Amino acid sequence: MAGIDSKIQGFLEKNREFAETWKKPATMEQMRSKAFDSGGRLVILTCLDPRVVPEQFFGPELNTPVIRNAGGRVNKDVITSIALLRSLANMKAVLVIHHTDCGATHLTDDGIREDARTRTPDAAEEIDATESYGCYTAADFEKTLMIDVDALRHSKLLAGIEIRGLALDTETGLVRELEV
Fold it and tell me: pTM for the full model?
């Protein structure tokens, strides 16, 4: 834990430095008003991999909500979050961004289950109840992106929201749109 405590203290120190130049952002009401007046916003669903930061590859002025999870995969929580954002900020579109060399391609669902059982044997019921951890193979990269785009498009809760699929190449930094 000493290593983790040291890292947290480092984060807090960096935050104090950051806060010295903090500029107070718009309030949520101001942001909501702007979103509704501008005809709507978009949200990005992508991976939690630290190499996949939309503000880096689309520019620091991106200023759009980003939902991040392992693999950038669609699940119930993602759909719920998008529905909330639709009501809050007139969300009109979702960009699903998967990337090459994703950690989810280096593991398997069964491998995660085995590791979890070893680390947390008392959690067997929860481990067995988890249908999928979102793993896929590198060969299925584009197919998996298409599956996630399709899942959002077929969610009745998200009817009327435009869903697009993008692929980030982590070797070149280039993003391309897939025809889905």
Answer: 0.89
